[in-house]
Amino acid sequence: MATTIIEPFRIKSVEPLRFTTKDQRAGILAEAFYNPFMIRADDVLIDLLTDSGTSAMSSRQWAAMMEGDESYAGSKSFYRFEAAVKKITGMKNIIPTHQGRASEKILFTITGGPGKYFLSNTLFDTTRANIEFSGAEGIDLLTEEARHPAAIAPFKGNIDLVALEETIREKGAARIAMCIITITNNSGGGQPVSMENIRAAGRICKQYGILFFIDACRFAENCYFIKQREEGYAAKTVGEIAGELFSYADGCTMSAKKDAFANIGGFLALNDDDLTRECRNLLVITEGFPTYGGLAGRDLEAIAVGLEEIMDEHYLQYRIRSMEYIGEKLEVEGIPFIKPVGGHAVYLDAKAFLPQVPSHQYPGLSLSNALYMEGGIRSVEIGSLMFGKYAEDGSLVPAPMELVRLAIPRRVYTQSHIDYVAEIIIDVFKKRDELNGYTIVYEAPLLRHFTAKLKPVQVEAREG
């Protein structure tokens, strides 16, 4: 009997890749101020910067886009979209937005503000930025096992329940704007959160009268992990698992650019009518009328179909297995990465990969740039460039981990592309002692990693 898990799709349209030489890439990287975000996409061979909005849409999605109703108000495309979201989440009120961070901006503007706190398993960059922009503070409550990249545990994305309750008591429930569980835990290595953990966190929040929300960008991948790893869920469908998961929450935000296979879009789903009214009022000012929310009718149609397609367990099996495939290749070579591999990406442990580069010289960026130099692969640093803060004396307060995320776009690359990626990582690992760090020459006050300009640290300066 065949054991190979094949792609549950066939290719109908192709797009050429552009090859560059190493010398060309050296010039490109310098022109981009050594920031992968500043590299033109045409100069990238394999683009693993993000899995957000980079998926290949299906023939059904493209066909649905032709059905898009572009009416300003009351579009029938909205009602198809609304029905698809309600079917999965069971939430009462659905608000479309142009992407996930727009949902966050609306929600946090209303619920946040100075003196407020948002508690989470781990907040991702744009989520934290929108919280801080409101004047509030985000607090990550990692479990102990999540702090150790090489530790093996089935649900390393969980929130620390003891720390959650202690923080609520310490800060005062009235000052906690909400608790947000990110599924899967993106900053924490794409690790899943267990149903038991979500249920318990929801119970604690209800006890203290605190809003409990799900950041649902990769909900289907998380639900599949629950089906595979958590007792009592093996016989349940992903849809049934999702229904239970969302039932514990007061609402959710989602970027449809992830698990809905869409190139743009997102939504807010809520049960509270008063909070919904406030969100819709702000939506009209910032995004558009409540039945389009910054999206074209064709995009609403694509999302509705994508939300149906993501529930296909053959696809989810293939998706998770693809990540494991890369991890197995790296494990053979002794390359450090977060274990077990996540649902949408492989996260290299840059601190262990490049022990000679200190946090204030950004080892994750050094590794990310080396992957581009060696093989034209674009990845993203998730470490002290993305999440580092400054102490009062101006010194860097480093991030808990120094990581490089290789996020795999959905339905885009083949096994040979992934084999190539693994080979380049292995080649860089063999030359790791030659790599040095970087220093910042320009940074923005928020989300600095998107537009920061950097320069290489001279070897003499690092050794001195």
The description of the largest β-sheet is: 7 strands, mixed
Derived structural class: alpha/beta
Reading side by side through the largest sheet, how are the strands ordered? 2-8-7-6-5-3-4
Q: Using the coordinates above, name the CATH class of the largest domain.
A: Alpha Beta
Instruction: Assign the CATH superfamily of the largest domain.
Output: Type I PLP-dependent aspartate aminotransferase-like (Major domain)
In CATH terms, what is the fold-level topology of the largest domain? Aspartate Aminotransferase, domain 2
Distance between the termini: 60 Å
Outline the secondary-structure elements.
Layout: H1 22-31, E1 46-47, H2 59-65, H3 76-89, E2 93-97, H4 100-111, E3 117-120, H5 125-133, E4 137-140, H6 161-171, E5 176-182, H7 195-208, E6 211-215, H8 219-229, H9 238-247, E7 251-255, E8 266-270, H10 273-286, H11 297-309, H12 313-332, E9 345-349, H13 350-353, H14 363-375, E10 377-378, E11 380-382, H15 384-387, E12 389-390, E13 396-397, E14 403-407, H16 415-430, E15 438-442, H17 448-451, E16 453-456, H18 459-463
Parallel strand pairs: 1-10, 3-4, 3-5, 5-6, 6-7
Antiparallel strand pairs: 2-8, 7-8, 9-14, 11-14, 12-13, 15-16
Helix pairs in contact: 1-14, 2-11, 3-11, 4-5, 6-7, 8-9, 12-16, 14-16
Keywords: Lyase, Pyridoxal phosphate
Modified residues (N6-(pyridoxal phosphate)lysine): 258
Domain Aromatic amino acid beta-eliminating lyase/threonine aldolase: 47-423
